[in-house]
Design a protein that fits this description.
It contains 14 helices and 14 strands. With 310 residues, the chain is α+β, with helices and mostly antiparallel strands. The termini are far apart. The structure holds zinc ion. It comes from Azospirillum oleiclasticum.
Length: 310
Amino acid sequence: MTDQATVRTPMDDLVQPFQIEASRLRGRMVRLGPELDDILNRHAYPEPVARFLAETLALAVLLSSMLKYEGVFTLQTKGDGPISLMVADVTSVGDLRAYAQFDEEALRKAGDDVDIAPAPALLGKGYIAFTVDQGADTDRYQGIVELSGKTLADCVQHYFRQSEQIDTGVTVGVGRDEAGGWRAGAIMMQRLPPDQGPAAVLASDTEDDWRRAMVMLTSVTTEELLNPELGASTLLYRLFHEDGVRVWPPQALRFGCRCSRERVETMLASLPREEVQDLKVDGVVEVVCQFCSTAYRFDDAELERVYGGV
Ligand SMILES: [Zn+2]
């Protein structure tokens, strides 16, 4: 395990890369605290929606940190269940944001099924998609897979098995701290394809390594995943020290939304003015960012300016 670097690095709201020494197993641990609480508190979601969105965000961070990209990674679920849409964004510099769309009536009816199999109960039939947007002139990488499994983590594992042929193990925990603040923690491990590991490892029996790692992964408790007093690297060492675990410096994560008044103005200007006028309530057009709930208001004088008037 390294070293002094972890001492001065963040203890919370971070993603921690690691690898099991001399094996083809690599992993990430994400820990979300105050920043997650901030993101969820911008919305007034019912408990199951907030909980599920927290899980989605934790998974989005894990998946994004497995990729090399400059730009925006988006995880999206779409389904015919009570939560019709969830979107979680992670930028390559660690800015997070997320929102959900749901039907309150359908959510109430979902009842106890949510505890037994949250993914089918809340999302219904649909798909989960990953997109990497690296700017206007680059390809958008997209992976998409049908929702299947009891949890979102199951769906993600299913995706890697089916689409990427990469063995993947994921464990996720979401809860609240004593003060009521939302917290999430998750660990994801992957077994790299045979041509990507250190040469010396190829001859050895990695099946055993993998099985042992999965046993350790399922032994992690939600309390361990969420506890801010228990450092990510300390927990990883506790789990994998027998096989040798190497941790790299964690990346700090924070809430960050890319909306701005300027962007909203550009969007409004692209719409027919009459349509926008029709949106007026009490003489003001209000545009609310879905991600962060910031409200941008435009009165007549400002609309005049947006549409190139005096
Ligand atoms: Zn925003």
